[in-house]
Amino acid sequence: MSYHKGYISPTRPNPHGPNDASIIIYGYIPSAILSILGLTLFTLAFLLHGYHLLRHRLYAFSLPVLTACLMETIGYIFRLLAERKDPYRINYFIIQYFLIVTAPVCLSAAIYYTLTLLVRRFGVPAHKPSLITIFRPRLILWTFISADFLCTIVQVTGASLIGKRTSDHKDPAAANNILLAGLAVQTLFFAVFLVLLAVFYHTAPNLSKTKLRPGTPRFFVTALSAAAVLVFVRTVFRLVETAQGVFGYLSVHEAFFGTLEFAPVVVAVGLLGTVAFPAGFGGRMSRGDEEKRRGGRKDGVLVGQGEEEGEK
Fold it and tell me: What tens digit of pLDDT does each residue of 140-154 get?
């Protein structure tokens, strides 16, 4: 992997402060318009999900999404500070990178949790074993959350080392490989989750019988799937970007960041706050659903198998 010295703006001289790198690590000067748009939309999303939290009290879903919105907002504030004050500042880069890279992990956690709610509510066919029946809902939840957490630590470590080595005029290839490894494993796990979500979508009998129109469970799961795919697109972008190496083509053109990092995440947050918000699945179950859950089987449907076994 070839090493490039990095980007130095012809119009923004380096102030050479104590916390400044010798180059602009972003590969460009962050756009003020994109930063303002980001902090505005994620602030609005934070308010929307805050309203949902107060109204529905679905803490396991809303708190991760609220955390993601807050992290995105602060991240774009630091991108704006880099554009307005000093694009060479290392701590501006590290803070915004950590927050913007980590925030989608919180969205993923909320999506994982929602799938467990859906499995408990709609069940899966008892006569048709699948990946959903093999793994308990709680196991699905914590397996993917743990994988995301560990992968994010690896990514942030790699990104921090890249910033340090590029500022010291040293080859960041090894640090970039650390970042790439974290992204590759994270992408693999999320791809497996999408397979599980697709299996559930096509095997849950109570779900497949409903029509695809607003307000129906099938429409909700479709919207949730769209949000999950958007987060996956963003993860794949980060993987390809990193695979190109430090200061690769994707990383030094902010248009790709705007269309494949910012846009998918903000739309996913919007979906999770509107048509993909699980208000009808996180509250109190109906009497019929409760009887199914206690009985375990009804009409050939196995409901909440994993959780039932875990509670006994």
Answer: 888 999 999 999 999
pLDDT tens-digit map of 87-102: 999 899 989 999 998 9
DSSP the chain: ------B--SSS-----TTB-SSBTTSSPPPHHHHHHHHHHHHHHHHHHHHHHHHH--HHHHHHHHHHHHHHHHHHHHHHHHHHT-TTBHHHHHHHHHHHHHHHHHHHHHHHHHHHHHHHHH-EETTS--HHHHS-HHHHHHHHHHHHHHHHHHHHHHHHHHHHHHHTT---HHHHHHHHHHHHHHHHHHHHHHHHHHHHHHH-HHHHTS-SSTTSHHHHHHHHHHHHHHHHHHHHHHHHHHHT-TT-TTTT-HHHHIIIIIHHHHHHHHHHHTTT--TTTSSPPPHHHHHHHHHSEETTEE-SHHHHHHH-
pTM of the model: 0.85
Cα dist. 152→46, 235, 260, 261 in Å?
Answer: 22, 11, 18, 16
Do the beta carbons of residue 185 and residue 75 sit within 8 Å? no
